[in-house]
Write a structure and sequence with these properties.
Helix content: 40-55%
CATH class of the largest domain: Alpha Beta
CATH architecture of the largest domain: 3-Layer(aba) Sandwich
Low-confidence stretches: 1-32
Strand order of the largest sheet: 7-6-8-9-10-14-15
Strand content: 15-25%
Radius of gyration: 22 Å
Number of domains: 2
Number of helices: 15
CATH topology of the largest domain: Rossmann fold
Mean pLDDT: 91
Structural class: alpha/beta
Oligomer: single chain
Shape: elongated
CATH superfamily of the largest domain: Response regulator
Number of strands: 15
Distance between the termini: 52 Å
Amino acid sequence: MHPRSLVTRRKALLAGAGAIAAPFVVTAPGFGQTGPIKLAGLVSLTGSGSPFGPNSRLAHQAVVDQVNAAGGLLGRKIEYLAEDDQTNAEAGIRAARKLIDVDKTQAIMSVWASAVGTAVLPLCWENKVMMLAISAADSLALLPHQGYFVRTQPHTELQGKEFGRVILAMGAKSAYLIMPQTPFTETVFKAIRETVEPKGVKVQSVIIDGKKTSFKSEIDEMVRANPDLFMMGGYQAENIVMAKDLFRANYKGKVIGFAYGMTPGFIDGAGKEAAEGMYACAEPSPAGGSSAYAKLKALVKKDALDTYICQAYDHANLAILAMAKGKEATGTGIRDNIRKIANNDAGVKVDNALDGLKALGEGKEIKYSGASGPCKFSDIGNIIEVAFRTTQVKDGKLTEVKM
């Protein structure tokens, strides 16, 4: 498609607001737009992100259904749409164009892969559509997104530093890092080095082709180097292959990896014996003891929640409450008001859309804090306050450990 035709098609909708149905009365002057308010999830139902995409969609839909059952938003129903980005940039662009050009969504929520987020974010800011993302690559926040971007996942520099702290806590004197090429690989390597090398830890790093069906040669080279610690930095599919090669090579050092690549599915795929003792690191810890976490468990009928379903829940609540705060059901309305309901420590504390809509209808200021933790954003869209956790495979299950 010719770029000029895209610019022509990508027109932001002027949105408006009537009055929200009782008991949540939020009125807006004179916009007069009717029809449903469109919110969308661009989620990974297939590909490397598939362990998480279905739960993101579930959380979005549950929040929307709850708000609609209570009367909707600004006098209108919300319509939720979801598209599979296939954890692939090209598929993500196609799906985003449909959501923006055809469906006329005002927000795209819970984009997981950084490659997809990088490809889709320009479509969002050009069309004044808000992106509430999980994608962690530092480069995303540095794009000229004009404020149409926030993320609840810690950016990769923070994740790399957390890996470094874990390496130091384990007492390793040498570390060997293997990661596939991603938009954040070099950032992670750099952050780890800057954290551990001043403490005397020797670091070697290798970038691999994630599409290979075997990493035997890379693993054999790592074993010959005999490091105290090996970072297996792939997604779930790559880690399963590496773990099997690692087990056959009889490596005896500690093994750590990104939590998103070391899931229950990873344990099943690699085999319990191969996965036993490995650590999953740099995972933002959900607010497990909070009322928001308890509400989400009840809403989606799950006993345990990972960080990604918690972030998706918060994305839907934040988008709805930001629109209500600004009395404007547009992506710009979300952009202009999200920090007013997320960073306002003086506001009434709320952890779900229903309580927030009620408070706003009563003329109160609010402060949203959710199931993934405090949702406070910097000027460029990065999450500000993050708690990390580390888990270890014990008897075939991921168990939280203190470092």
